[in-house]
Amino acid sequence: MFLYINKRMLLVLLLILILIVGFIVFRIIFKQKSIQTNATPKGYIALVINDLGNNGEGIEELMKLDIPITGAVMPFLEYSKIDSEKCYNAGMEIILHLPMESESGPISWSGPNPITCAKSNEEVRKNVEDGIKEIKWAKGINNHMGSRVMKNERIMKEVLKVAKEKGLYFLDSRTGEYSVAERLTKELDIVYFYRDIFLDNSKREQDIVDSMEKLGQIALEKGYAVGIGHVGGQGGKITIEVIDKMSKKLQEQGIEFIYLSQIEKLNP
């Protein structure tokens, strides 16, 4: 009996020793991984994908990206609410992609029910409020087209007053050479961001790759950068595929991808 007990105790002690050694090895491995993953990033990138609301080419690929994305959803379209909800459920930050009158091209290019310089303050306010009601998860607003409206102080002040009332930030897509948005957001105390790079002015893969690399350079130099890409006609599947590939390369360079709203903490 005594021999049997000793053998059993020996097995118990051996098991305890194995568990202790395993725990120590686990802590060493875990600590190494945490040091690697918690290293301070060298720069940050916020990617905004415009023209959602059309169920456009590339939206399914967009849903599969494993980095933070800010989705800009155009209101007043057949798929506006559907795309908005789909992107929200996929973990994206949502903003209102507000149609505005441009300097050139037919008004139809500006999107459905656009804000134009001919509209009254009341009509402009209604446009923005209706858009926010439709894109109910919106944390901010950016302009779709709008090179004419963006330099009109009366119109932009009304747009931004609604944004302030709703607690929304404003992203200037910089579609024209001049904009009053930055000055007015300072006057009204509204969080303001601006676009650094359009990723897909060309749908040629290498051009989009080059744009992502340039965005990375800006992020490393300035600390952060904002890039705008598109689903649908202007960008679509090719844009999302390049983002998927290049995001991994940029992460290896020490760049972290974040939601647009998170830039506020980097640039108070």
From TrEMBL:
It holds the Pfam family Polysacc_deac_2. This is Divergent polysaccharide deacetylase family protein. The lineage of its organism: Bacteria, Bacillati, Bacillota, Tissierellia, Tissierellales.
